[in-house]
Amino acid sequence: MHKRLMSPQRLWLLAGYTAAAVALFCAPLYLSDFRLNLLAKFLAFAIVALGLDLIWGYTGILSLGHGVFFGLGGYAMAMYLKLEASGGRLPDFMDWSGLTALPWFWKPFSSFGFAFAAGILLPALLALVLGYFTFRNRIRGVYFTILTQALVIITVTLFIGQQAYTGGTNGVTGYGKLFGQSLASPETKQTLYWVTVVALIAAYVLCRFLVKSRFGKVLRAIRDGENRVRFIGYNPAVYQMVAFSISAGLAGLAGMLFVLHVGIISPSMMGIVPSIEMVLWVAIGGRGTLVGAALGAILLNSAKSVFSESYPDAWLFFMGALFVIVVVFLPKGAAGLFGQFKWLRKGRTVHEDGDGVSYPAVR
Amino acid sequence: MDVIVLQLFNGISVSSILLLIALGLAITFGLMKVINMAHGELIMIGAYSAYVVQNLFTSYMPSSMFNWYFVAAIPVSFIVAFLMGLLLETTLIRFLYGRPLDSLLATWGIGLMLQQLARTIFGAPNVGVTSPSWLNGGVTIMGDVVLPYKRLFIIALVCLCLFAMYVYIYRSHSGRRMRAVMQNREMAACLGISTRRVDAVTFAIGSGIAGIAGCALTLMGPIGPSIGTYYIVDAFMVVVLGGVGKLVGTVFGAFGIGMSNTLFEYWTTASLGKVLVFLCIVAFLQWRPMGLIAMRSRSLD
């Protein structure tokens, strides 16, 4: 990096990024409103994938609980929208469940600023707490993964069970306005799309900065040999906690954008299957490469929306098979496959950042 | 007092089913460091085997024999799930040894496909299995507490399986080989144990027990393609709590989780009870990160 700032390769890379950004920004010109909305949703998913890649691809910790963080962000935004739509009265589902006053924890969500901050900080805080109680005790590998999956189960049961406060199975829906603008109008959708693109680029830049910094180096070192990192004198738990909570915060941000695009958040969107699907995006795209993870999310969701419309049954078979194929044959995902092409490797020196996952990542 | 006895009994009943499910998981994880997310689907296979046996009995056997279909269903479930496990191990799992996270994802994919397969064959709605008439009713103790025969039968079945596993692991030749591989794979291989075969057989036995668990679950209510997912996470928590590699740890883990689940849900609500159990498990892991009973080893990691 410090050798030549403008090598031909870097120029090509820069050109590629610019082209991708331009293509994304100009999407409203060549996509129908329906497709644009879909793409916006996928871009929100791509933000989750970036966060997940940070924790799984770079730190070697598999979290099956990102649906919860995604859902918490979504609920934070939905609570604000719901209060806005109810206009001073009690939200309808609370009325149905027999509540007479707004619960105390709903009150601050009437301000957009608080809801926005909570949508990112709440998941990050939850991740930090969970990370504190696990990583510090060196609970890792599958043990941690199983705990995150249990977190998903209990959160979903809790949200369904506390119907008066969370809307139960139906979730929070039935709102249509943000800042007085209708969420359904094409203009708002376009603006929201651009907001999502900006958020995605910001998330990408953040992740890239983290990964290229010394912090990122330690993360990769933890992935490849946690004990060695500890013996050198680092405290892996701190790095793991920070990476995990940044990752959760990104998922929360994505959840907020998702609610704006889709107009509903319910426990079924934070369940076990959506959470593990998020992992599949990263696995397909290529863990350990940020672009791969984001592209994986976009491509897989596009494929899903095309396939599952016509063959919903075959889609599940396909998804199951993808898991097996990726794990057995393509541990580095599509990006790893791409990187094997000779013409891309030409000119690359020995200096490889070691971004690909190498085994044994986990023992 | 009656209520307490009933809750305790329910707790034991829930724990025994959890134990049956977690037994196979704990062994495969301890032995091969493979997390089998398709374990829930092996339960489903066992349950559907019982369903098929029931249908065969109603079609081809005199109706006087129907009550005994369940006796036939248990070994059939075991064998079907055993073969399925063997197939799974030889075609996929053995490529994933030592990669727990990857095995988790791949087997989850397998589970997804098996679920969809069951949905294609048997249809998405749940199917009911008529339990044999000799399991209807129950024992009445202390005046008005009724302990259903079905649950008593399941507890007895679990005890039997546990005893058989104990004999197999600690008293048989192939069990000794299994323990040897679990403790030190390289050394066992040097001494002439075919670790490949030990792995395959152990995985298949774990799967077979899951099949029996599925068969037992048909007594508790209707069965569907996703019956396994309901239990699988709890079963994994049993493994986390109990530690791997020792039968006794799994037993304690199952009873810890089964009992606390029942009691907390009785004291609070179903959803809050689950949260409390989770918090208890995390708190417990602060004290013993490797689970209740862990195999001691001087190797790092």
From TrEMBL, chain A:
Q: Does the keyword Transcription apply?
A: no
Topology in the lipid bilayer is annotated as: Multi-pass membrane protein
Sorted alphabetically, which Pfam families does this protein's record hold?
BPD_transp_2
Q: What UniProt keywords are attached to this protein's entry? A: Cell membrane, Membrane, Transmembrane, Transmembrane helix
- Cross-referenced InterPro entries: ABC_transp_permease, ABC_transptr_urea_perm_UrtC, LivM-like
Write down the superkingdom of origin: Bacteria
Q: Where are the transmembrane segments?
A: 12-32, 38-56, 63-81, 112-135, 142-161, 192-211, 280-303, 315-338
User: Which compartments is it annotated to reside in?
Assistant: Cell membrane
Where primarily located?
A: membrane
Under NCBIfam families, the record lists:
urea_trans_UrtC (TIGR03408)
Q: Which PANTHER family match?
A: HIGH-AFFINITY BRANCHED-CHAIN AMINO ACID TRANSPORT SYSTEM PERMEASE, SLR1201 PROTEIN
| Name of the featured protein | Urea ABC transporter permease subunit UrtC
TrEMBL record, chain B:
Protein keywords = Amino-acid transport, Cell membrane, Membrane, Transmembrane, Transmembrane helix, Transport
Q: Which residues form a coiled coil?
A: none
Q: What is its main location?
A: membrane
Residues annotated as transmembrane: 12-35, 42-60, 66-88, 152-170, 201-223, 235-257, 264-287
- How is the protein disposed in the membrane? Multi-pass membrane protein
Q: Which InterPro entries does the entry link to?
A: ABC_transp_permease (IPR001851), ABC_UrtB_bac (IPR017779), BCAA_transport_permease (IPR052157)
Its localization reads: Cell membrane
Entry superkingdom: Bacteria
- PANTHER family named in the record: ABC TRANSPORTER PERMEASE PROTEIN, BRANCHED-CHAIN AMINO ACID TRANSPORT SYSTEM PERMEASE PROTEIN LIVH
Similarity comment: Belongs to the binding-protein-dependent transport system permease family. LivHM subfamily.
Output this protein's name. Urea ABC transporter permease subunit UrtB
